Amino acid sequence: MDYRDKLVLAPMVRVGTLSFRMLAAEYGADITYGEEIIDHKLVKCQRRINVAFGTTEFVEKGTDNVVFSTCDEERERVVFQMGTSDAVRALKAAEIVCNDVAAVDINMGCPKAFSIQGGMGAALLSKPELIHDILATLKRNLDVPVTCKIRLLKSPADTVELARRIEKLGVPALAVHGRKVADRPRDPAKWDEIADVVAALSIPVIANGDVLEYDDFTRIKTATGAASVMVARGAMWNASIFSPKGKSHWEDVKKKYIRKSILWNNDVKSTKYTIKEMIAHHSCLELAEGKSLNKADTLEDIAKLYEVEDYYWTVKNIRPVTHDLNYVL
Fold it and tell me: Ranges for the DUS-like FMN-binding domain (predicted)?
């Protein structure tokens, strides 16, 4: 995995599923992170090939609940991001998925209560010994690159110190979100503090924060000196942000996302959530579209709503019956 001069899709819960990753890649994303998956959940999964959809699925044992899905086409660019607070469990989880992804990344930046209370995400920022244990264990036992994504600490000096400790573990890159744990998305990202990290390290730094237009890729690289740039909300609202040709209209991007969701059999809750995020940013969920979307219970319902029912049935009819072709490896 080459981490220099790349446009990177950030990990986003409920958004970064296979269908959205494939959409981002089609528009120009070089590296695509999946949504964070908690190690507790992955260790309960078994690997399954879904021949009908051409995907590799990690399914919770005894259920049809697909926890993570990928495909051969994204094998060289997809990063599996994991939430963990234990090195042994992290390794057990990573070993289940590592042969089907390009890299494994540890979430060390999520500020949400669920992660913090579980000792995961941003809770790791104050536990450098645990960080060492997790990353060293994974690096020692996995053949794929192991990285992590952090947030800024209370002071620039603290962030730099932690980043240096992480670099010494031999990770090939470090992603830095330019906000502190207490910051909210409306608070400006601190590009200058990302620059401090870049200046202190020799490995590629992936800068993240306030990338909302294609020109921001160049702006943040120039301001920080970062090797690559990661985008979250800007991509969620309009995945064509990755295109050097300029953004497509969000309605066109939304329609293309719906088609990808049908093509890759995306979870309907994830599909609805992502569409709602687009609508909420560009329009209003209280209008007729948002209300109709709320009533949709299946991908077929969504296809009808957005007048791509013909596409839905074309995809459905050219594929064999899924449950007859699943098998476990």
Answer: 9-257
> What single DSSP character describes residue 145?
-
The stretch 247-259 carries a mean pLDDT of: 98
SS3 107: strand
Annotation marks residue 110 as catalytic = yes
Distance CA 166, CA 151 (A): 13
- Spatial strand order of the sheet with 55-60 comes to 66-70, 55-60, 45-50, 326-328
> Contact 220/226 with Cβ under 8 angstroms?
yes
Q: Give Cα 320 to chain centroid, integer Å.
A: 29
- Alpha-carbon distances of 58 from 80, 89, 146, 216, rounded to whole Å: 12, 17, 20, 35
Short-list 51, 31, 90, 43, CA closest to 68: 43
How far apart CA 221 and CA 207 sit, in angstroms, is: 8
Report the alpha-carbon distance of residue 3 to residue 172 in Å, rounded.
8
What does residue 9 show for φ and ψ, rounded to 5 degrees? -80, 125
- Residue with the larger pLDDT of the pair 145 and 318: 145
Backbone angles phi, psi at 281, to 5 degrees: -80, -40
Rounded distance, CA 177 to CA 208, Å? 5
Beta carbons of 256 and 237 less than 8 angstroms apart: no
87: phi then psi, degrees, rounded to nearest 5 = -65, -45
Q: Which residues contact 286 (CB under 8 A, 6 or more apart)?
A: none
pLDDT band at 113 (very low <50, low <70, confident <90, very high): confident
Q: How far apart are CA 218 and CA 96, in angstroms?
A: 37
> Which residue among the candidates 45, 71, 98, 110 is catalytic per the annotation?
110
pTM of the model as a whole:
0.96
SS3 label, residue 9: strand
